[in-house]
Amino acid sequence: xxxxxxxxxxxxxxxxxxxxxxxxxxxxxxxxxxxxxxxxxxxxxxxxxxxxxxxxxxxxxxxxxxxxxxxxxxxxxxxxxxxxxxxxxxxxxxxxxxxxxxxxxxxxxxxxxxxxxxxxxxxxxxxxxxxxxxxxxxxxxxxxxxxxxxxxxxxxxxxxxxxxxxxxxxxxxxxxxxxxxxxxxxxxxxxxxxxxxxxxxxxxxxxxxxxxxxxxxxxxxxxxxxxxxxxxxxxxxxxxxxxxxxxxxxxxxxxxxxxxxxxxxxxxxxxxxxxxxxxxxxxxxxxxxxxxxxxxxxxxxxxxxxxxxxxxxxxxxxxxxxxxxxxxxxxxxxxxxxxxxxxxxxxxxxxxxxxxxxxxxxxxxxxxxxxxxxxxxxxxxxxxxxxxxxxxxxxxxxxxxxxxxxxxxxxxxxxxxxxxxxxxxxxxxxxxxxxxxxxxxxxxxxxxxxxxxxxxxxxxxxxxxxxxxxxxxxxxxxxxxxxxxxxxxxxxxxxxxxxxxxxxxxxxxxxxxxxxxxxxxxxxxxxxxxxxxxxxxxxxxxxxxxxxxxxxxxxxxxxxxxxxxxxxxxxxxxxxxxxxxxxxxxxxxxxxxxxxxxxxxxxxxxxxxxxxxxxxxxxxxxxxxxxxxxxxxxxxxxxxxxxxxxxxxx
Length: 650
Ligand code: RUQ
Ligand code: CUA
Known about the structure:
This protein is mainly beta. Helices cover 11% and strands 36% of the residues.
């Protein structure tokens, strides 16, 4: 039911909440009904549930605001999902936009005490372990989250994120919003830019993402085995292609200099990465002497043809085929796999315009943004133009420290100015005319202060053909005085700007834990989540609700355990000191949001099982005594009573 609040809050009128819930087969009201059926809800729980069920209809309608508001009233849902990287927290976060409310943290590279990521056998298999069973890495640094595409827009199937520290790419499923695969890229360090392709350049019927491209920032000697560390001129970096389904590395392409961010074209033919440090410096002073670096373009079709024809090399110790994309090997445009378009000066960021025509690459140390016309890059590959630089069709001066660019659906671009602490709105067509010599056009349309030092920005749906020009969110790297002081470590500041009118309007800000780099803003009808698992998907599931049991084989003990609020299937399980114990826990509750936790004191174990989910943990029972295993996730009026005893005899 739509009420006045909803109309006034600037939400789109096609509010599809009811439909979405119907499709998912489970609603919040149903949750209430089922919980009531259980018949034991305590006061606190039932109050929480009923207010959750009725909240939408409450609240007096405020006077109609003239302009879109970021306020989302109690009980209402945001119009967009925001997928945020968490930076060196190693995670991904999901926010509601425009409210900025944080809805979920998805552990990716970071062990997580709440969900048991890094504790359960299933998550450890995804994270990767050493021979002694310890986690291979416990640190991570996520920068860029990007979703899979179909027909030039998000299809909600997958999201990928990079780990810059250990050069890993992770995939999150769109239906469960949990990490399902992690791949470590060979032969590279400083894996920073990441972008899925948007269709196949060779097979036009494949109109969806099948590859993910990965840039790497740090040049390395190869093989990187300590024998060749001092010849820094010989260091190089590799552009990596990962298969979107299998998550296996398909190929790598050797480039001169380094890479940074990545963008892909809507026709699938081109991917590009901005390059700073084409000087090949190893200290920063040497990384910024050149007046121009470049944006390197990859001809995907030609690279894949070279791989298929075996025109590749390999680095000792690695099986990945490597195509030579260096300048020297690609002087002839008609056979070249790469095209280096010169861009001033130490550029950071490359972004594709939603009309599919341009990439914008910003100068960082130059006050300019360069507009590269993709058609002209393709012309260069066909031998029709001589200089790669001919592909640059505009280079407006927009302000100091330009980094990343976002777009609306009306031909305007929005660029973060790190040094100026501003967002500048500028017109692409006007910039092209000005570059061609027209002195009468106005390129810069608006400027607005942000707080402070913006890095990434993104507009609603802007990295798709469905850019809608409604909201622009700014990731500010410094918050300084914007929040109550909390000691020396400050949060970062995400600011929301209404871009629906001619002038930008700052409407909202929210603190975020350090430090998100990038994010995408996805219309909520693109996302179809499951609220309950399917028990059949878990090979270990304890499917019989009365099937809890203990199995022993030598000193290996397997506890098959069920949970149904407010009890586990066994009230005690006895093992002997030295036993290797595996606990498999299947949650038989079917009600949305009814998860249980399972913690064992002194054994460093805690994890949750969501409705109909199965997880397992393995540990050695090396401490005799009684250990109360208890439910950590408030599930029921008798949540505190939901326990079992691990009893270890000496
Ligand atoms: S970065 S502030 Cu890691 Cu995308 Cu540009
Ligand atoms: Cu089960 Cu709390």
